[in-house]
Design goal:
Protein name: Heme peroxidase
Distance between the termini: 71 Å
GO molecular function: dioxygenase activity; heme binding; iron ion binding; monooxygenase activity; oxidoreductase activity, acting on paired donors, with incorporation or reduction of molecular oxygen; peroxidase activity
CATH superfamily of the largest domain: Haem peroxidase domain superfamily, animal type
Helix content: 40-55%
Number of strands: 23
CATH topology of the largest domain: Myeloperoxidase, subunit C
Radius of gyration: 36 Å
Structural class: alpha+beta
Number of helices: 46
Shape: elongated
Strand order of the largest sheet: 6-7-16-12
Strand content: 5-15%
Organism: Mycena albidolilacea
Keywords: Dioxygenase, Heme, Iron, Metal-binding, Oxidoreductase, Peroxidase
Largest sheet: 4 strands, antiparallel
Pfam families: An_peroxidase
CATH class of the largest domain: Mainly Alpha
Length: 1152
Amino acid sequence: MSRLSTMNAPALQGVAKTLQATLIDILYKDLPHPPSTYLSILPQNAPTAANPNPIKYAYRNADGSNYVPLFPGLGKANSPYARSVPATNFTPPATLPDAELIFDTLMSRDEFVDHPGGISSLFFAFADLVIHSIFNTDPRDPTNNLTSSYLDLGILYGNSQKEQDSVRNKDGRGRLYEDVFADGRLLFMPPSACALLVLLSRNHNYSAQKILEINEQGTYNQFQNDAEKLAQDDEIFNRARLVNCAYFMQIILGDYVGAILGLVRDGYSWRLDPLSQSREPSHDLTPRGEGNVCSVEFNLLYRWHATLSKQDTEWTENLFNELFGGKDFSTLTAQDFANVARQKMRPDPDPKKRTFNKLQRGGDGRFKDSDLAEILQNATSWRAGAYKARGIPEVLRVIEVLGIEQARRWGTCSMNDFRRFLGLKPYASFQEWNPDERVHTAAAALYKDIENLELYVGLQAEETKVPMAGAGLCPGYTISRSILADAVCLTRGDRFLTVELTPFNLTAWGYRDCQFDAQDGSYGGMLTKLLFRTLPAYYPARSAYAHFPFLDPVYMKDYMSKNSPTFVDKYIWTRPTHPERVEDVVVIKTAVGVAAVLNNPTVFPTGYAERLETVTGHKAVNHTFVNEIILKEADKWAKYFEEETQHLIERRSLDHIGKSGKVQYVDIVRDVINVLPVHWISHQLAGLPLEGDLKDEQNHYEAFSDVCRYVFLNSEPLNDWRLRESSVKTFHDFEKVVKEHLSSRVRLAIQLLDSNRASLADSLPFLNELYANHPDLTDLAAALFTEVVPTAAHWTQAIAHVVDYYLDDSRTQVRQEIVKLAGLRTPQANGQIAAHVRAALGRLFCCFLESLVWGVYRTAHTTDFVADSVRIPAGTRVFASIKEANVGSRCADSFRPNSSNLCVFTLNWFFCILTPRQTAPQVLGKILGLKGLKRAPGRSGSFNRFVETTNGVPQQWYVNARSDLVPWPESLLVQYNIYYHSHHPCPLNVIMCSSQSWRLPSRSQAKPKPSDIYDGSLQDYRWTNSLTATEAMICNLAKWLPCRRGRGGDFVQQALDVDVVCEPRIISCGRGRVGDGTVPDATTVTWALDGLSVDQMAGVAKQMMLMPNLALYKDALASHVSIQAVPVPSPPPFFGSFLAFSLPFQFLCKVI
């Protein structure tokens, strides 16, 4: 299924989905729901229905009750274990072999064997968390389970309200105390289990903080009293717990089950998804959220002491020597253990004071990141032991003996009973159970008959699997089959992991945060993100210790080298090394200090050049020649941005129903500003293919944004892999297109005749000039990419923020001034507009613009640098807070448009031609000049952003439509007005046709008539028609129409001695090519006619009729054409200073 699901063929993916649904249904039904019986009788006062609750959001009760509305006590903490399999073997207990003898002959470790699948010790530390989450046998009543039967992280939050209260801060933010967890049992496990649980504790606080900061529903405010504070704290806590439990569940499915099935090892990001909804062949819904009760059989199944690594075995031996005073492990008795448990294994009742592995808490209650990283990286590098008979360390002898005896007191079934229950073939002999002669001979001597073999002993000493496709954990066959069924039941039976796992309950951000990222380099893992998030200084980007934490790095590198050699060098396989106190971040807040950091690249290198080299695969490429060629046609590009802004606004605007067409809406950021650089780079520079739809444009925008984020804003390891891989792919696609365009000049000429390569036709002159200056295609493509792509997102962010800034009603006067200046089209006016841009961005960010963010990270490469009176050692991370430096600094003067202060920030270095002086006047003039422009109603008319506090200083983030946190806005809806007035047609008969896609407003809801035109003095004209479609001759007409963007028609030049711009949107006839004789369906050519009078238009028409090709059809056309001229004034600002005519080739025109 993993291979089918990763194939591109939809049919095969559908087969995989069907197979997965069938498999999940089988595994889920391996166990009864609800259980058939319990070890003891359920309490008689157990409720039969959930109690009414005034709380209006879903949350987990502290004790696990009310998880199933119809059976509120099902699986709650402090309730009996279930019994899944009734025992049918009638062997008297007295005839069973002694438990100590069984351990000494079948279970005691004779030698340590490395795990054959490369599993690390950290995998089993996480297994400890899973096991302790669902099993906690009551020492006073062994039939009772003190924890709930759900993966609700009871080990972290507690299994009663009292335990939960002991770890909660209750300060109104929904947080836990720092680095706490409720279950003290884990303090006596190898320390990597506690270290992992501390990271999940931190993840809860991270989630709570994000839920509070984003405040999706706007309901979290400053509370007025203790009751309001507690209510807010409860809600944030409960939502954060849902997020954290879902995250824990995804680690189980992604990393844990992924390692069990060998999917991570084999490089598959596909995962078994037991949470999804499906239907049976009868169309009945497969059950979900029906509850779960843990059984004694699975309590015995999850005892995996044979896998204890050498190092963890040594740690356990040291612990036992300390607890038992050095007593021989082989002589420890159950009473010895009980005495020590009562006297020495009682954790501190205050979770805030508990420690493990002799770690010390800091003044803030946190453990050192370095200590936690040391423990976790040790566990990753230590190979676990293999499952095997005679594999359990001697130090755990007393634990195993107690386990065997407990299983007998529970009346547990035999090994073959359990296999029959699962639908597996019962073993016919001891030799079939384990072919090792030493093992099966000893077992036969002890048990006599294979039917007498106890479940616990049978599971521990069964023959194990070998690594292969689908087998990574390699336990015995019965365990392997059982853990999949249990994993499905644990997750699918929990309604908070299935039917209640929704963006509404977890918040949209929380739900998104729990989703797998198949492109993060860890093949579907979630623990990777947790390590990067909580210990970023100790898990650098690309580290195999973060991407494959459950696999021994030495094993994984060797395996990948043999099976996927092309991927090996993408990872760093050596153990991370760090200078002392690397997690300490020095925050620089003053203007002088920030300037010192940003202006000293030798001491604080940016890393930009290195990351660009990673993207392009080239050493630093000289791209000066690209900049010079672009700058030569600065006026042309400014004109392009103006026209394209108008065109995008027209195409992407929406009508307000019921407003007589007067109100229009447009997402000015997503559908206009963000795609302007995409169109410019694709159409005018590189000739990149664009499908023309919104999805394709947004894909290009996101690809360019990833490049910008990777090169300029990639300060954390969390998103490094995805951003890097996306950026490299974007460059390779870019390079391939540019090389193809210029590799064969003959082929290029042929391509120009292809109607689908309009962008190539537009970009050809520019590419030709680049090629003439630099014929090395590899360097040329890298230089062009480096010059324009990485900064495209910076430009969109700057323009978006300027528009948002001047949308405020308090700045209406400045907005009108910008529109007026844009209409002047002079260098002086453009300079004034650029000053307004600087003023807006200065107030929003700061004059020290490294990028449009509130701060940047740097790492000192030399020692003893002083900033803000702080000595910064080499290797120290520094955060230069641009926002804080702005407060009270002399840069405040630079926010005035007429300021000449030297610290006024400039965009020139970053944006090349895309500077405020070159493009902002035209773009802002079109946008801010829309009549009645204002924000759309509600939250859609504002950026979706929030401010978080990191390292004691503020940072601003934005939430996009997918609930990802991004450094810039991606949407802003505005509205504007358009008006119509009626005029009588002019009597002059001329030639021209109107576009079917042209939308003119009307005061009525009816489609506007040709006479519904704009009000104002007669300056330009729109030509309308009432004519019918002609036949295939129309396509032949297209063969001589001399129209291409930037090229005027020769006949127009001759007739009028004026410069007419003729630009095609699509040059094709239906599904054929121009001139192939087919009837066109949607072919149009758009002409931009600037300031032509009626007489001039008539001259154009007459000149056209004299063209030889057209004259051939003169008589035929006359019978099909009836045309009138309609006067139109200067168009409104969003149409620009010219008027665009769209000429469908279905209609032919002549002068009557």
